[in-house]
Write a structure and sequence with these properties.
331 residues; mainly alpha; Arc Repressor Mutant, subunit A; 2 domains; 4 strands; 61% helix; 8% strand
Length: 331
């Protein structure tokens, strides 16, 4: 249980059974008044204003307090931060009016990133819920992919595949946080790094917690060893070499086919495809903006399973080095 310093308010995340499916959920207590983590609170406030452009501060406060995700003081702090970051604009209805209207810039990079992270979060949770609906039950009720003697291999296969999803999410954003975000104003840049890496760490914990419960469910029935969840390390963008960055944008493509076969075998193809399609299209659009000629070659990877593209490596390394020097990012 996580406690936050706030009078009579606390927040915890629990694992519940929802319509036969185990999943994580935010549980709010103490008269429905809660204090969620700052990024989640900020996201809720942004989302409300986006869907109610031109609303007043009092409406935002009313929504936040009624739904228990922030107090009046917290709302005003978030609004001030958003205004300072030029995400929020505040206008008067009339020149001397005390009434203010709030507007969120939909084209702001932080807003775009926030919406992307929300969509990934939704798709990832759908995949995890599907996994639990299949494997958090007696082994004898599992789909007959392998025989009973190979049940540990069956679970290990899906565990390793789920862990790779987090790596794929990181790959999908690596171009952005390595080359694009350093160009932004420091306020923008810091906020985007905070948003992304906070969510990435949370997703990693969410996947590992789900995996741990699946493994425990298995071990309670069969005394057999299975690979434990592995730690995934995140590094500051400046520590990524040109070779690593280049390969990180190509490498996931080599595993798409194999993972697709695995998730189809386990009855999770639809959930997997929705998440991967979203990440893949986002990754392609990022790289395509700088190297348009690679777009067709990426699809050649998928359709013909061609070999590595060495002719672009040296060009990428050269331009990556030039970019780091130009922007003062080289050590």
């Amino acid at each position: 249980m996580l406690f936050f310093v706030f009078p009579y308010i606390y927040y915890k995340q629990v694992f519940i059974l929802d319509n036969g499916i185990y999943r994580y959920t935010d549980m709010y207590t103490d008269s429905d008044l809660i204090l969620v983590d700052p990024e989640h609170r900020r996201s809720r406030i942004i989302d409300f204003i986006l869907h109610n452009q031109g609303c007043s501060k009092s409406k935002v406060v009313a929504h936040a307090t009624e739904n228990g995700y922030a107090s009046k003081v917290s709302v005003y702090e978030v609004l001030n931060d958003l205004k300072r970051e030029k995400i929020l604009s505040i206008r008067r209805e009339k020149p001397n009016s005390k009434s203010h209207q709030l507007f969120i810039d939909r084209k702001n990079h932080v807003i775009i990133l926030t919406k992307q992270l929300q969509e990934i979060d939704r798709l990832l949770k759908a995949l995890l819920e599907k996994t639990f609906s299949i494997y958090n039950k007696p082994v004898k009720e599992w789909p007959k992919i392998y025989d009973r003697e190979s049940s540990s291999s069956q679970l290990s296969e899906i565990v390793n595949s789920l862990q790779y999803i987090i790596s794929f999410i990181d790959h999908a954003f690596k171009y952005l946080y390595s080359l694009e975000w350093p160009r932004f104003d420091s306020v923008y840049r810091n906020q985007m790094y905070t948003l992304f890496f906070t969510e990435l760490g949370r997703w990693h914990n969410l996947v590992n917690n789900n995996i741990s419960r699946l493994i425990q469910n298995y071990k309670n029935q069969i005394d057999d060893w299975i690979y434990p969840p592995q730690r995934y390390e995140y590094r500051h963008p400046k520590s990524i070499s040109a070779d690593e960055l280049y390969l990180s944008m190509l490498q996931p493509l080599f595993r798409i086919h194999r993972l697709e076969v695995i998730f189809e075998r386990h009855g999770m193809l639809n959930e997997y495809t929705r998440l991967i399609d979203y990440l893949f299209n986002m990754n392609i659009s990022q790289i395509d903006s700088v190297y348009p000629e690679l777009h067709d070659l990426f699809f050649e990877f998928l359709t013909k399973n061609t070999s590595y593209l060495p002719k672009y490596r040296e060009r990428f390394k050269r331009e990556y080095k030039e970019y780091l020097v130009k922007n003062g990012l080289d050590d």
